[in-house]
């Protein structure tokens, strides 16, 4: 006979006495931190960054994506993260495509992490200059309430 296992959240519900999961786990609202930036005509150099937005204390990160309006070149990379952990949500990778890049979609990229402090999210140009006049658009999804 097969064994049935409970998720951590189901174990709370089935406990004696039964418990309740907080709204970051069940019933919370999904919010988006959206960002858009048109690069200057001079482009951005290696090591430059763009401050994208701020995530609140208690946010549970559940994914996101970004896209460039212009391919960034054969060696240009993008990292999405915070000061001190530049690749927290997207580890530096070549972004020489007009496709959508997923971020915070693995445990290594902090999917499901709950923030204990506010975070200012940034995009970092880790290698080779970004293309002049290109547009960066995206969002990070998170649960709150």
Descriptive terms for the model:
1 helix, mainly beta, 145 residues, 8 strands, Jelly Rolls, four-stranded antiparallel beta sheet, 5% helix, single chain
Number of DSSP-assigned strands: 8
Radius of gyration: 18 Å
Show unreliable segments: none
Give me the secondary-structure category: mainly beta
CATH class division: Mainly Beta
Count of alpha and pi helical runs: 1
Helix content range of the residues, please? under 10%
Strand order of the largest sheet: 1-8-3-6
Q: How does CATH name the architecture?
A: Sandwich
Largest sheet: 4 strands, antiparallel
CATH topology grouping = Jelly Rolls
Distance between the termini: 40 Å
The H/E string reads HEEEEEEEE
Strand content range = 35-45%
- In the residues, how many domains can be counted? 1
* Coarse morphology: elongated
Average pLDDT = 89
Structure, briefly:
The protein has 145 residues and is mostly beta strands. The chain has one helix at 8-14, and strands spanning 29-38, 49-55, 60-68, 77-82, 85-94, 101-102, 119-125, 135-144. It is elongated and about 65 Å long.
Question: How are the SSEs ordered, and which strands pair?
Answer:
Blueprint: H1 8-14, E1 29-38, E2 49-55, E3 60-68, E4 77-82, E5 85-94, E6 101-102, E7 119-125, E8 135-144
Written description of the protein model:
With 145 residues, this protein is mainly beta. The protein has one domain: Jelly Rolls (Sandwich). Helix content is 5%, strand content 42%. It contains 1 helix and 8 strands, in the order αββββββββ. The chain has a 4-stranded antiparallel sheet, with no helix packed on it. Strands 2-7-4-5 form a 4-stranded antiparallel sheet, with no helix packed on it. A hairpin with a 2-residue loop joins strand 4 and strand 5. The N and C termini lie far apart (40 Å). The mean pLDDT is 89.
